[in-house]
Design goal:
The chain is an alpha/beta fold and about 270 residues long. The protein has a 7-stranded mixed sheet, with helices on both faces. It has a single domain (about 1-270), classed as Rossmann fold (3-Layer(aba) Sandwich), CATH 3.40.50.150. The radius of gyration is 19 Å and the shape is globular. It is built from 10 helices and 9 strands. The protein starts with a helix and ends with a helix. It is an enzyme of class 2 (transferase).
């Protein structure tokens, strides 16, 4: 199955299966992806959708079908513009995947841009890496209850992972699910809050494995330590994002794009 054999898809198998299931049930007429990368999730979205718009800071070296449009640049600028066009045409975005800017502020803005649009009224929104502390803090900062059309938010739709060998000691992966339905009455808070989320528990496990005292959760010392770690991780994300953007813009990356495409094609055919 291509779903599990694709070696460039930066998602766990359970996450891939969950997205495939949502797409299969939803069959979007119009879909959006924030964060194209090498196009693994885009291929699956395109397979189930009539029209797809995918956003990334650099132009991916991909062969895309005619019903896919790539938007290159800052999603915080481009996404609101594209959504405004859809709204003016009276169109609805059926499915959206948010997997681009992994800073707390960046993911918050992407989600809020989607929720602010009248083109997002009957929509399934999936967010990736909700187990990561930075991403989760950005998603937690969104005021979902301020949007009457948001009927359900489960940021642990698929739990994240604590890395052991790859990304050792780091919290990554995890899918969040945001269901938007402007025609469905909502009662109370749409956010799932009846359990500890996976990221909290994995952070405790990580600290215990590292020999550090577990977070007290409500103490000033614990909160200060958490904020310092979040700030440090924010800086690290920005640093690595800058390095990645420089790589994607480099002549060598563009020159070798046909080789990577040929490898993916040979892998699928094999």
């Amino acid at each position: 199955m291509e779903l599990f054999e694709d070696d460039v898809w930066q998602m766990a198998w359970g996450e891939r299966a969950a997205i495939e299931g949502l797409l299969s049930a939803r069959r979007p007429a119009l879909a959006i992806e924030v964060g194209t990368a090498e196009g693994a999730s885009l291929r699956r979205i395109a397979a189930h959708s009539a029209e797809v718009h995918s956003f990334d800071v650099v132009l991916p070296q991909l062969e895309v079908p005619e019903h896919v449009t790539l938007h290159t640049g800052d999603s915080h600028v481009l996404l609101p513009e594209v959504l405004a066009g859809f709204a003016q045409e009276g169109r609805n975005v059926d499915f959206a995947l948010v997997d681009g800017d992994h800073s707390a502020e960046g993911v918050r803005r992407d989600v809020e841009d989607l929720l602010a649009s009248s083109a997002v009224r009957d929509t399934v929104i999936v967010t990736h890496d909700t187990g990561n502390e930075l991403v989760r803090s950005g998603l937690d900062a969104v005021d979902y209850a301020a949007h009457d059309k948001v009927v359900h938010v489960d940021l642990d739709f698929v739990p994240g992972h604590l890395g052991r060998e790859r990304f050792g000691g780091e919290l990554w992966y995890g899918l969040g699910l945001i269901v938007v339905d402007a025609d469905r009455p909502r009662a109370g808070d749409p956010v799932q809050r009846d359990r500890h989320h996976g990221g909290e528990l994995l952070a405790v496990a990580r600290d215990a494995l590292a020999g550090a005292p577990a977070r007290a959760g409500t103490s000033a010392t614990a909160l200060d330590a958490r904020d310092e770690r979040i700030a440090a991780l924010e800086r690290e994300v920005v640093h690595h994002r800058d390095l990645w953007q420089a790589l994607m813009r480099s002549p060598s990356w563009r020159v070798t794009a046909p080789l990577r495409a040929a490898k993916r094609l040979a892998h699928r055919r094999g």
